[in-house]
Amino acid sequence: MAKSISTYPNTDPRSGFCSANSTFYSKRKPIPLPANQSLDVTTFISSRAHHGEVAFIDAASGRSLTFAELWRAVDAVSTSLSSDFGIRKGHVILLLTPNSIYFPIVCLAVMSLGAIITTTNPLNTAREIAKQIADSKPSLAFTVPQLLPKLADSNLPIVLLGGGAPSSSKLRIITTIEEMMRREPSASRVRERVNQDDTATLLYSSGTTGASKGVVSSHKNLIAMVQTVVSRFKLEDGKQTFICTVPMFHIYGLVAFATGLIASGSTVVILSKFEMDEMLMAIQKFSATYLPLVPPILVALMNHADSIKRKYDLSSLHTVLSGGAPLSKEVIEGFTDKYPGVGVLQGYGLTESTGIGASTDSQEESSRYGTAGLLSPSMEAKIVNPETGAPLPVNRTGELWLRGPSIMKGYFSNEEATASTLDSQGWLRTGDLCYIDEDGFIFVVDRLKELIKYKGYQVPPAELEALLLTHPQIDDSAVIPFPDKEAGQIPMAYVVRKKGSTITESQVMDFIAQQVAPYKRIRRVAFVASVPKNPSGKILRKDLIKLAVSKI
């Protein structure tokens, strides 16, 4: 049963800090989870009462899906998966596609059977996708015609999402999503009992550091997320229209669009990729009220406000939702000055916490500049000294630990990574250095984790360093985040040439560009005599960051 902050003795109602156990409790009203343990997230979402009519609109074609059409499609696809292709509880299904009206249909159909959905970035290379396939071992894949070459060597059965397929002896195309959606839903299909603790999604994240790992999230995790999203935006109060430009394969997109918002009866307008003019045109055409985005897009809207407002009617828009990094006072004030009728809400979450952690839910909360917000409902936090492990009180900086109903089950087939991230009491070590102030607001100070945030994408330096070391003319390397106004951060490499080598900056960048997705590319290179390291051999990235920034 969800408990309110008043349940815990010795807890300061202002900060939420309990002196007895050094735990911060959420000040928000707790959200109870369904008592029925035999419940999958698809059934939970479809059974929620709302008055919405249109679930999804494809911005490019104008094609729409009503809620009735959506749920019939989900039922038909799940029938086909079960009866025609033998998909059962525990089977993994790969989804490789840009944002699409089919994305939520596939996710919801797969999860309704107790099967597991794993998504991947369409920008990933065939090598990167093959690595995920080898790890997750999917039974079949859904993809679009233009991405078929990336699955050519997988030997997976493939369901095609829209369009015709090129002829290739390597491809095992078994059907199309349109054919599956025409299937008559059958009551006789095999539906095994799904428990809230069963695995629903397997999303790949770089975690707190290092190589990509599969994050195992349960139906309970997703149900808790849906409850939080719907209550946060008070969506039962009226019809709302959201623009979806953030990637659906990522936890940010999956939280909001493939699951969260359809539970409220909201309409989601889907753009296959981010393009500023297309996004603005969609806001105008469909009278959108909410715009989820990442900080670089918000900054661009602010910087070009005058020309944007001359060209587009954005009067329907009342809220932008920003995630990925806290916004500064200058950015929030600059944006609200340019768009006086539009509120700015922020959120903090990880793939490992099903996108839930903290948020600002009103303009008043967002005006506490630099904050990630208050703890989400039913979420608990600790601030821990990363060196001693000692819990810290209000206004002291340490690593943020989170515990709550949306925290992942663990990393897929990786006990070592799970043990280093989740403790025996269910606390998730976020890898973020934070403090919580006297009013319960979380402030992210720095990252213990070493991920580079490029336009909201996570770029693990260790992966790029390992690739650089495979080059015959490179002796050593270190990759750091370099500040960039448009992207937030870009990957920068410090490279030690081998004796006699004449490798150039452009050759280093080209070498990496041929092997990774565009967002992971190295965009700046400097040559050094040696890479600074501590006695245990760990790269001293902060020293390199200071060196790089000092030369701006």
Automatic annotation (TrEMBL):
Membrane-spanning segments: 92-117, 249-271
Single GO biological process annotation from the record: phenylpropanoid metabolic process
InterPro entries noted in UniProt: AMP-bd_C, AMP-bd_C_sf, AMP-binding_CS, AMP-dep_synth/lig_dom, ANL_N_sf
Functional pathway: Phytoalexin biosynthesis; 3,4',5-trihydroxystilbene biosynthesis; 3,4',5-trihydroxystilbene from trans-4-coumarate: step 1/2
Domain of life: Eukaryota
Cited PROSITE patterns: AMP_BINDING (PS00455)
Gene (name only): 4CL4
Annotated GO CC locations: peroxisome
Name of this chain's protein: 4-coumarate:coenzyme A ligase 4
Keywords, alphabetical: ATP-binding, Ligase, Membrane, Nucleotide-binding, Phenylpropanoid metabolism, Transmembrane, Transmembrane helix
Domain AMP-dependent synthetase/ligase residue range list: 48-412
Source organism per UniProt: Salvia miltiorrhiza
Protein family membership: Belongs to the ATP-dependent AMP-binding enzyme family.
GO molecular function terms attached to this record: (E)-caffeate-CoA ligase activity; ATP binding; trans-feruloyl-CoA synthase activity
Pfam family, any one: AMP-binding_C
